[in-house]
Structure formats: C-alpha cells, structure tokens
Amino acid sequence: MEFIDFLLEDFFVTGQPLIYGAMVSIVLVSIAIVFVLSYFKKWGWLWREWLTTVDHKKIGIMYIIAALAMLFRGGVDALLMRTQLTLPGMEFLDSQHYNEIFTTHGTIMIIFMAMPFLIGLMNYIVPLQIGARDVAFPFLNALSFWSFAFGAMIFNLSFVIGGSPDAGWTSYTPMAGATLNPGPAQNYYLIGLQVSGIGTLATGINFIVTILKMRAPGMKMMRLPIFTWSTFITSIIIVFAFPILTVALALMTIDRIFGSHFFTLTGEGMPMMWANLFWLWGHPEVYIVILPAFGIFSEIISTFARKQLFGYKAMVYSMVVIAGLSFVVWVHHFFTMGAGGAVNSFFSITTMLIAVPTGVKIFNWLGTMYKGRIRFDTPMLWSLAFIPCFVIGGVTGVMLAMAAADYQYHNTYFLVAHFHYVLIAGTVFGCFAGLTYWYPKMFGHKMNEKLGKISFWFFVIGFNVCFFPMYFLGFAGMPRRTYTIEPEWMALNVTASIGAILMAIGFAVFVYNIYYSFRYSQRETHGDTWDGRALEWATTTPVPFYNFATVPKIEGPEAYWRMKENGRTTYEKEKVEPIHMPSDSGVPFVMMAFMFIASFGLIWEWIGIAIAGLIGVLACMVIRSFDYDDGFYVSVEEIKQTEKKAREGEQ
Amino acid sequence: MKNIYLRVKLWAALPALSLLLLVSGCGELTVLDPKGPVGESQKDLIIFSIILMLIIVAVVFIAFTYMIVKYRDRPGRDEKDYDPDHHGNTTLEIVWTVIPLIIVTALSIPTVITIYELEEAPEASSDKEPLVVYATTADWKWFFSYPEENIETVNYLHIPTDRAIEFRLSSADSMASLWIPALGGQKYNMAGMENTLYLQADEEGTYEGRNSNYNGSGFAEHTFEVHAENEEDFESWVEKVKNTAPELTQEEYDSLLAPGLEEELEFSSTHLDYVDHGTNEGRDYLIERHKDAFEEPLHLKGGRGAGDE
Amino acid sequence: MSAHTDISTGPLEYRTQEGRMNILGFWIFLGAEVVLFSTLFATYAVLFGRTADAPVPADLFEMPMVLIMTFLLLTSSFTCGIAIHHMRRGSLKGLFVWLGITLALGLGFLGFEIYEFVHYAHEGASLPSSAFWSAFFVLTGTHGLHVLLGISWAVLILIQLRQRGLTPVTSRKVFIVGLYWHFLDVIWIFIFTSVYLIGMVV
User: Fold this and answer.
1) Most buried pick, A362, A427, B45, C42, via CB within 10 A?
2) Yes or no, beta carbons of B87 and A309 under 8 Å apart
C-alpha cells in the first residue's frame, strides 16, 4: 500500500490535465513505435544500422532528428507560456506549473536542441569538408551521441515521473538547493545535464583532433572551410568551458544528495558561487551555440552569392577573439550583485568589445555579397534574414552590457527579447539554414523550395512580431519569469503571442516539408547540388560510407571549386586502395543505458540502483579496454562498384 | 524576385512599427519616464545608447538592402558587376574594425561615469542625510525596517520626496532583487551579505516595486507599493505608525518568515533587534526555523486580479 | 583511419596514425582535467576559512603523514617514468616490475588518504561539516578517485600486456596511462602546497 501511495503521490506527476494528456500520448507513441518496428521486423535493422553505428554521418543525422524532437518539445513549452501570458488574469497555468515550463523550455532549447543540432551538422559535414573518412575517434563519437540522447531522456522523463525542475535553466542557489527545493525535480536537471555534458566534452576533444590530424594532404589550416574553422574554435571553447559545468553540477548534486555546503545558506556555503561557476561556463556556452551558426552562414552566403568569402582571415581571427573574450565577460550576467564600480566597469567594457569582432563578421558577410550574383534559395533566405535580426539582437546586447543601464534592463523582458534575437536569429536560423543547405547531401533530395519559403516567411515574420514587442515590455517594467501579466502590458503581449503562433506554423510547415520532400522531391543525380565550393560537395550523393574513394590533394582554399576548375574528382580509378574503416559497436549504447539507470537511481537517491548502474558502466569500459577489434578494409572491387553506381547520373 | 521587394518593405516597416509602438505605449514605458535622479541618469544613458545603436542599425540595414537589391541574380545583369575572385579589402576591414572600437569607447566613457555615480547617493539631495531603510526579503514578502524611526512595514514602503533613500538590501532565504522601475535600477538581496542601493523620488505618487529576480512559486506576487510623499506627510505617517502599530515580537517575526504570501503590515519596532540577515550570523536564521516549510510550492492562479490564494 | 601514414621508426606508440591521434586526444583531455581541477581549487580558495562550527584545518592537518603521501606519489611518478623507459627499450619484464612498483606506491598513497579521511571524520570534520570541509573533501577526494581509477586502469593494461606483449597499441596504452599518472602527481603538488601547507600555516 505504501508503495502505491508513493507511486501516486511522489513518483508519477498527478493532478495536471495537461500532463495526463502528455502521459497518454507518450504511451500511445511508444506503443506505436514498438508495433511498427515489430510489424515490419525492423528491430534488427534499427540495432545494426543506427544504435550500434559509429559512422559520423548517421550519428549526425540522429543528432539532428533528436534536436528537432527537442525543438518541438521546447516549442510546445513556449506556446504554453505565451498562452498563459497573453491576457492578464489567465488561469491556464498556475505559478508552479508555469515555472516548471519556463525552466524546461530554457534548458531544453540550449542543451538539448541548439547544441545537438549544431553538433549534428558538424558531425555530418566536418569530416567531409576536410577530406576525412570519419572523425578521429568514431567509437567516442557514438558514446557522445548516446550520452546526449540518454541525458535528454533523463531530463524529459521528469515531467511525468517525479516532477519537472522549476528553478530556471540558471538554477540559482539557494533557491535550487535541497532546503528550498526538495524532491527529485532539481536532481533531474543536474544529472540530465551532467550526463549529456560528458558527451559534449568528448565531442570537443574529438573534433579538435579530427581537424588537427585528419585533414586531406595539402589542406593547411588557413585553407579550411570556414564552417570547419568555426567547429574547431567551438571545440576549443567546449574543452575549456565544459569541465566548469561538470564541477558546478557535481557540487550542487553533492550538496543536494550528500549534504555538503558549497551553495547552501547553512554551514557557511556561498550561494553566489553557483552563479559565478554557472556563467563561467554559461557565457562561453552562448558562443558554443553561435560560432558554428556563423560558420554555416558564411558557407551559405558565399555559395549563393557565388563568390569567395570576403576577408577569410579576418573571419577566422574574429572568431578566435570572440572565443577569448567569451571567458572574460561572465559577470555581466549579474552586474546587480553589487560587486562595485571597478568590477562592473571592467566587465562592461570587455562585453562591449565583443561587438567589434562580431561587427567585422557582419560587414564581411555584406562584403561577400558585394559584386556577387545572389540567388535566393531557402538556405540563403535564412542566412539573409539572420543579418538584420542578429544586428538588432547585437546592438541591444551592447545596451545590456552598459552596467549602469543594465540595472534597469536586468531580469526584464528587454533581456528576454535580446537573447531570443541572438539565439533564434543566430542559432535557430543557422540550424534551419544549415539543414536545408546540406539536406540534399544527407538525404539525396532537396527540401521543397516552395514549402521552404512559406515556412521561412511564417517563422521570420512571426519571430519579429513575437520578440520585438518584448523590448518595450522591458521598458514597461515587465519582469521575466512572471507567470501572470498586469493589464497595462496586455497589448504588447497579445502581439507577442500572435507572433508565437506564426512561428509555430512556420515550424509545422518545416516539418511537413521533410515528409513532403521525402515523398515528392526529385532525387539528386550528382553530389554538387548548389554549385558548392567546399569539399563536401565533391562526394557523391548519397555519400558512400567511406566518404572519399580517393582523397584529393588540396592546392588552395575552396578545395572543391578548384577541383571543378581543374576537372578533378574524389574518384581517381587508378589510385583506389583498400580503405580502412572502424567496426560498429553496441558498447556505447549499452554503456549509456547503464548510465541512465545509474542516473535514475541518483535522482531518486536510491543509492543501490545508482551503484548497480555505475558498475554496468565500468564493466562496459573494461570490455572496451579489452576490445582489440581493428576495424576492417573495404576492397578496391567494392569501392569501384559503389562509385560506379553512385556516379551513374553524372555523365 | 517578388521576395526581395517584400523583404525590403518588411525591414523598412520595422522602424516605423517600433516608432508606432513607442508612441502608443509611451505613457507606460516606466523606465523611460523616471520619477527621480537615479532613474533619470539611467534614462539618459539608455537614450544615448539607443541613438548610437539606431545609427549602426541604419548603416547595416542600408548596406544590406543595397547588396541584396543591386547584386541579386537577374536576367540581363551587367557582367562587369560580378567579380567572383574578389575576396577582401584590407583598408575597408580596418575601417570597420576601428569604427566599432570608437563607438565602444564612446559608450564606455558615460557608462563607467554612471556606474561610479550610482555607487553614491544622488547629488541632487546631497544637502540632506539619506534615509536608511533596511529592505529584507523572505519568500515571498518584503520587510522594510526604518532603524532611525524604529518602525517596520511589510510589503509597502513610504518614502519622503527629494531625499535620497539608502536601501540596505539583504535576504533571509532565496536571492531576490529590489526594483522600483519608476525610480531607478535594481540590486540583489542576498542572505549573509548586504548591498547598498540609492534611490530617490522627486515626484509624489505611488509606484510599483517588486522583486525582479525569479525565486520560486510566489515570485509574481513578490511585490510592494512605494508611496512617495513630501517630508511633512512622511513624518506624520511615521508618527501614526509609531503610535498605532503593535510591536514586532520575535515570535511574530519568526512566523512571518515562513514561506508564503503576506498582506501589508506595520510595526512600531524592527526585526533588526533580533537578527540582521545581511550578516554572516543571520544567514541561516530562517533555514533553522523553517527547514521543512518549503515542501509544498504555491499554486497561484490568475494574478492579483483573481482574488488571493 | 588511414594506414598509409604509419611509420616504422621512432617510439612504438607514435608509429601509427591512430596512436598519434590517441595521444594528442589524451593531451587535450588532460587540458580539460586541468580546467576541472582549477575549478575545484578556485572553489576551495573561495570557501577557505568558512569552517562554521567544525574544527579548523590547522588543528587537523599533520605534516608527517602528508609528507609520506607526497613522497609515495612523487616516487611513483618517477618509477612510472622508469617503466616507460623500459618499454622504450623493449623490456617487457622491466616494464612489469616498475609499473608494479608504481601501482604499489599508488595503493600506499590511497591507503594513507583513506586513513586520513576517516581520522578527520572522527575529529568532527566530514563532508557535511561546513563549506570549507565540503571543498576540502571534494577536491582531495576527486584527486583520490582519479588515483584509484588510474590504478584500476593500469591493472587492466598490465593484463593486456601479458596477453599481447608490446605492440603499438599496448605501448600506446601504457604511455597514455603514464601521462595520466604524471598528471595526477602534478595535481598533488598543487594540493600539497595550496591545501596542506597553507592550511597548516593559516
């Protein structure tokens, strides 16, 4: 009986019609998936082709699918919030429920949507751009993906089992500590982020080594495509920023579960130390999700303006400067802490300085279009819309950087408007641009242009209608994270909600476009869909699992552009040699499944289960250590056959 | 090519739209209509930055429009206009590095000056000693202690006009942020430490004050009203509270600290007699007493209009 | 992945492209570990002196024991270097002997650390005692956990050496675990100075 009581009162989230609905739909969708997989006898296929794969291309695709699912979840959260905030006196969500929703919205969008989406694109594209056959550590790459996937699952589980975290994605202590926030909800946040963070760190290491060590012969660093450069710099930021998050999360976990006093009010802990550690990671994190998007825009603008990138070197150096500055601005997230004039002045100025390299990039993009011949395909539309929107987000960022004025902006909708202007216009537009741009390379057909444009206009107009009014709501004194609005803020909030609906329509059309294009789009006959410039377009479409039959010698920047001028391909029959490829492995999946169990135990403070899960993880590590599988060779014959088939359409 | 014109119109419409919003909502943009010298100096800084930023936005938008209109791919375009090998211009790149640097400098100077200015009591009332008010928060209510007058209020505040108020900010539990947008910017209230915030009202009136820093399920109602009145009215209000309000016993104070909402109250003594949460000794005072009171969050519905929970 | 970049001279562990990439990857991982420990050191520094009602470190820290621990770990780093030297010479036996000594010294260090923690707990200083002690136990405990992990990892590699002898793969693994071991030694030097020496003086 006690057990049943526990299930109904603490374990399952009860009492919310919305959540019952979600539970039912989760159960139905799960049954449907199991049924479809069983009916079509696809379990073996799923395991062999996807769950055990170490192919960077498949892992990239899995990242992107998961990110789209998370974008949907985060977007539904956003719509629920906008509904509640449309009118004063709304009783759609109560304060506690609203708090849970904005917490999961923020956390999911940053950690489980933006980063995996970009990492997915990096995974697919970077090895292709540098002429490599996979990343440096394919096994580790699979491990990264499954740690993200299981981390996301842990986090998402919270809203049906145990309750969602409600302390905001920043989870400031002491509010998020064990006394003021008892129960498993906050543990879900801590452990979910911890598990996926491990994978992100591994991804960072993986890409640094890949880019340093696996470039095609002749591809010097200053000949790298700019997206690869952005990945390289992002990876460096990851390696230096993520351990800080790891420590911060671990310390709060130890505080909550084992009673230490890092961030508590008792025992002379220091609650504000959390804010410092969090933003020491958190601000570089912002650049982790924006720099790859910059790289994507650079690739696309250059391709569709049919010109070389303007100021390549300046583009690279500006990213390096941004990466450096990103570690010395974190205090601007809490100017109002009362650190004094000198500290606030210093961090005001360093923050404003970021505008300089960012400005250089904006002007270089404009310079790329100068004397170009611009086509307006959907990827280019996203990239073009990015420029003005991001400039608005950027200049308001400079305004926020002015500490004295920030005392008035802090914690208001002005801030909310600012970071959505940079994160949506930067990261989300970048993800959509990158996905539509590389879509034919990934799936062998373009996304439908007409639907693409419809979705683009709905989303971009909706975005501006939704978030531009929020700047004024900030001036009107509306604090962020409030679950209810005052009557005088109504007009602007109604406008914002209309914008949110337009964005939702845009996203729905985007997803429908994936289905529609799968059904009806013309299949690509050759690898170079957009008259591209970097090496990924030199491969056939779809890309063979070994990527390049022969790795070309690179003679300058814009490798593929030169190859086309010289009539060269990545398949030089006489040079074909057997290709060494890594073997698939189920260990990453199983290991992270054990990690999932361990996490669940830790979240509920059932230490026995946690230890059992950890033993499983360690056992997987031992198995891996004794695994001397050296991969396999693809025979010349097989390569020749594959290439012949893939290149049929090109003649 | 319809798209381009649509786009041009859209971006041309944005500034117009924002202007419209600005005009229609001007009376409500509290931050841009401050009622005291602190908010005034912040508003000046904000307006200055908005003007500079609008210039930047205009330059980028014009250049952007020019590029996508002039260099779009269209039939019959002049071939001389297309230069695929054009890949940089060092002079230009230096120019657009240096100009932003100058703009950043132009913004930094007034910013730093204002930052230091706000650390002191406003000069406008330097002839008078600032009125000291201890503003303490506990989930989700405000305690205002007037040590010189020896009175304390809960969830509302009376201040004299034309005299600086020196807030001593601290918290008994979660971090909060005292913000009265009509008077000026905010600062954090944290347990175990004390922040000083100077504000001043020049106009009489009632202003909204709130905690702007999210701190849990009662956050939206963690607000207070500020009554700014002339020196005489203020003095007589103080007298009235002293004579009519009960004393604040430690027992009563301890029970007020329990998490929850509270109505407006006043007392003829202050809680500073028992504890100052802004000191290291006072940092866990509330936790010691209400350790298990945070199990159940509030489920507020419908805001203040919908009747109190 | 490509075999054509393999070379046949130089240290065994550097001869394959895979070996070189693994070693570079591990160096970068150590960079991340440096950040991790820096964060823990910073946390410790911030919480230094915040002992609340618990005993202060100067009353508990004992120089002789810490010196022995330091001696054990420093020596183990040296013997680990000798082990790598024997590996380079191609002497499997020498590698076994010296790696074995290294691990024994590491175990000795761990034994002392566990004794130390238990001793402090008896004196009223444990993880939940105060912010300072939380930071102390997490910092030194994280290091200790790393040592434990390093020992277990090295044991696995010893088994593999026995099974397979010295190959580019096994020698790479030995080399990497050696890097890890030296790294832990460096971290300990910082713990010794900034935790124990300063803790005893202040």
Assistant:
1) A427
2) yes
**Chain A residues within an 8 Å CB radius of B116:** 341, 345
Size of interface A-B (CB pairs under 8 A): 330
Per-residue pLDDT of C188-198, as tens digits, reads: 999 999 999 99
Looking at the domain B2-73+89-118, which fold is it?
Answer: Helix Hairpins (1.10.287)
**Sign of the CA dihedral C118, C124, C130, C133?**
negative
Does a structural domain hold residue C63? no
Q: Which of A13-22, A102-111, B217-226 has the lowest mean pLDDT?
A: A13-22
Q: Are A77 and A105 in contact (CB under 8 A)?
A: yes
Distance, CA of A231 to CA of A215 (rounded, Å)? 14
Domain that residue C33 falls in: 12-46+73-201
A206 close contact with B: CB closer than 8 A? no
In this structure, the answer to whether residues A35 and A72 fall within a common structural domain is no
For an interface test with C, give the residue of A56, A134, A205, A215 to mutate (most C CBs within 10 A).
A205
Number of domains making up chain A: 2
For residue B154, the one-letter residue type is V
Coil, helix or strand at residue A222: helix
- Together in a domain, A511 and A391: yes
Q: How far is CA A104 from CA A78, A433, B59, in A?
A: 10, 25, 38
Kindly state whether residues A367 and A495 are assigned to the same domain.
yes
Separation in Å, CA of B229 to nearest CA in chain A? 22
Tens of pLDDT, residue by residue over A392-415, are 999 999 999 999 999 999 999 999
- CATH code of the domain containing A280: 1.20.210.10
Q: Do C160 and A246 touch (CB under 8 A)?
A: no
In a domain, C36, yes or no: yes
C51 close to A (CB below 8 A) = yes
Say if residue A1 is in the same domain as residue A83: no
Mean pLDDT across C117-133 = 96
Which residue of chain C comes nearest to A622, CA vs CA?
C156
CB < 8 Å to A264, chain C:
131
Alpha-carbon gap: A635 to the closest alpha carbon of chain C (Å):
14
Closest partner CB to C35 (pick from A240, A264, A269): A240
CB-CB under 8 Å, A91 with B306 = yes
Give the position of tokens 């700019």.
A226
Judge if A431 and A368 occupy the same domain.
yes
Residue boundaries of the structural domains of chain B: 2-73+89-118, 127-292
Cα(A157)–Cα(A146) distance, integer angstroms: 16
Among A398-402, A494-498, C29-33, C58-62, the least confident range: C58-62
- Tell me whether C32 touches chain A (CB under 8 Å): yes
The partner residue sitting opposite A208, judged by closest CB among C28, C129, C131, is C28
Contact flag A248-C51 (C-beta cutoff 8 Å) = no
| One domain for residues A9 and A137 | no
How many structural domains compose chain C? Answer: 1
DSSP-based three-state secondary structure for A523: strand
Amino acid in the structure at residue A246: T
Interface predicted TM-score of the whole assembly (ipTM), two decimals: 0.95
- The domain B127-292 is placed in CATH, from the list 2.60.40.2700, 3.40.50.460, 3.40.190.10, 2.60.40.420, at 2.60.40.420
Contact A260 C134 (CB under 8 A): yes
Residue-wise pLDDT for A535-567, tens only, equals: 999 999 889 999 999 999 998 889 999 999 888
Using CA atoms, how far residue C24 sits from A416, A621, C19, C179, in Å, is: 41, 20, 9, 11
Q: In terms of domains, do A422 and A382 share one?
A: yes
Q: Domain with C150 in it: what CATH number?
A: 1.20.120.80
Q: Please provide the DSSP assignment of C21-90 as one string.
A: HHHHHHHHHHHHHHHHHHHHHHHHHHHTT--TTSPPHHHH--HHHHHHHHHHHHHHHHHHHHHHHHHHHT
Identify whether C165 is part of a domain. yes
pLDDT, tens digit (0-9, with 9 covering 90-100), for A598-628: 999 999 999 999 999 999 999 999 999 999 9
Nearest CA in chain A to C142: A247
The residue written with tokens 């001696």 in the block is C71
Domain that holds residue A29: 1-41
- Mind listing the pLDDT tens digit for each residue in A361-390? 999 999 999 999 999 999 999 999 999 999
